[in-house]
Every structure is written in C-alpha cells, then in structure tokens.
User: What shape does this take?
Amino acid sequence: MGRTLAMGLARVHAPFNFFIYNPTQEKARALAHDVQGSVVPLLNQLANIDIVLIACRPQQFSQLALELKPLLKGDELIVSIMAAIPVHTLADKLGVSKIVRMMPNTPNKIGLGVNLFFFSPTVSLPERTSILNSFALFSSVFNLEKEDFLDICTAFTGSGPALIFEWARLMGEILVQRGIAAHDAHKMVNQTFLGAATLLAGQGKSPLELREEVASKGGVTVEALKVFADSGMGQIIDKATQQAYLRGKELEKLL
Ligand SMILES: NC(=O)c1ccc[n+]([C@@H]2O[C@H](COP(=O)([O-])OP(=O)(O)OC[C@H]3O[C@@H](n4cnc5c(N)ncnc54)[C@H](OP(=O)(O)O)[C@@H]3O)[C@@H](O)[C@H]2O)c1
Assistant: This one.
C-alpha cells in the first residue's frame, strides 16, 4: 500500500522528494526508481525529513518505532496508514505530536482510491491543506473530525473492496454452478459491477433510485431483492463491518 500511495503522489507530481526505506532493499530500490526518489539503505541514515509515511503492518510497528524514535527531531509530521494504531500510541511510541492517521484502499492503484484522514490537533491548517490537496490530486479524500470515525469507515472503504470482491466471486461461482462457462461467468459479473459502479458514480442518482430503475414492479429483480430483505442483507453488512471495527479495537489493545 505504501508503494501504491507513493506511486500515486509521484504520478501527479505532488511537491515531495521521496526517500524510501524498506527492510527488503530490492523493494526500496524498485520504488525509489519508480518515483524518482532516493533509497535509504539503513534507517539510521534517515535525515532532515519533514513528513514520514509509515506503511508497515500494525504488528511490525513496535519494532520500527524502537528504531525510528531516536532518529526523529520531534517536529516531523507522521502519516500512518496502519489500521488499529491510534494517535496516542503513535505519539507515545515515536515521541512526536503531529500525527496524521490515514486509511487508504486498493483502488488507489488505478487513481480511484478513497483516502480517509484524521489529523491530531497539533497539525497546523497549512499542513492539513498540503496533505489533503496532494492526495486529492489522485484520489477522493475525506477529512474526518473524530478519530473513531476513521475506524468506523475503515470497514467500509479500507476493507470495502474485499467485501465487494467476495460478492463478485460468489456471484461468479453460482453462475458456474448453474452451467455457465467460468470465463464468461466471471467476465459477466465483473462487467456488471463496473457498469453499476459507474452509474453510481456518474448519474447523480442515489443507489435507491438506481435500484428502482432495475426492479420493475411484478418483475424478476424484485423477487431477488425480497430474498435479500427477508434474509437480513442489511444486518449481514452491519454485522460484518461491526466485526471488522471490533477487530481493530482488539488489535489496538494487543499491539
Ligand atoms: N492492503 C490494504 O488494502 C490496506 C488498506 C488500508 C490500510 N492498509 C495498511 O497498510 C499497511 C500495509 O499493508 P500492506 O497490505 O501493504 O502490507 P504488506 O504488503 O505486508 O507491506 C508491509 C511493508 O512494510 C515493510 N516493513 C516491514 N517492517 C518494516 C519496518 N520495520 N520498517 C519499514 N518497513 C517495514 C515490509 O517490508 P518487507 O517486505 O521487507 O518485510 C513491506 O514492504 C498496514 O498497516 C495496513 O493496515 C492496507
């Protein structure tokens, strides 16, 4: 995900010079090449950095924090994309106060990402504007006023693509079970998702209005929608996203 974001920023010529550190140096070298940045071979060679984007897994952060903390001056802006690590833990473990929590998603790879932000109160307005404007050059950005909103929305936008991919996978598999060739089945479903998502994005119509355009009274679609409603589709989505949120809170305590 760190690579995806750096590539997005580089693609739109956001006003940053990139210094890339990754324990696997080939990865750092490849990314530095792609964003026309520099490799930092060892973390202790990091110097004079204004903004640090942390993109390791939450479980890897404690180790990184031990190595990174002595290298920081204290006035750097820390941008963390890690799920489940709250502002106060980032501030404590790194000894800095200016923290930005960010939650990206994988469609950033194709310039269609959603990037959520929460800024700690010590991040100045010009710093917030600079970060939001830079990411807005290649994605949809949302500035959330409460940290918990970021955790709530993570299940919908950060995890959201996986929920949609799973739905597409299941629809494809059911078509195959009913005799449609796998290649056609998956292509049909993928194209239906793409077409529906494009209608959602571009028509200025709500999901409900678009649904009603398909589901004519007495027709076939309403029967399928009735099964969704009777089976508690809304409750399933509610439960799944709540479970993801709770896992974040659980990890928050464990890490
Ligand atoms: N994937 C998503 O859709 C998504 C969405 C939203 C947020 N996120 C967040 O993004 C973060 C990364 O997720 P991912 O899916 O990109 O995981 P990933 O593919 O495992 O990437 C983690 C990267 O962190 C590097 N790393 C490990 N230890 C490090 C250290 N001490 N210092 C610096 N870098 C270190 C790893 O390098 P090595 O390969 O050398 O170990 C690897 O390149 C997670 O915190 C996750 O919560 C991911």
Q: What stands out?
A: Residues 160-254 form a domain with the ProC C-terminal domain-like fold fold (CATH 1.10.3730.10). The chain has a mean pLDDT of 96. The first strand starts at residue 19 and ends at 20. The chain has two domains: 2-157, 160-254.
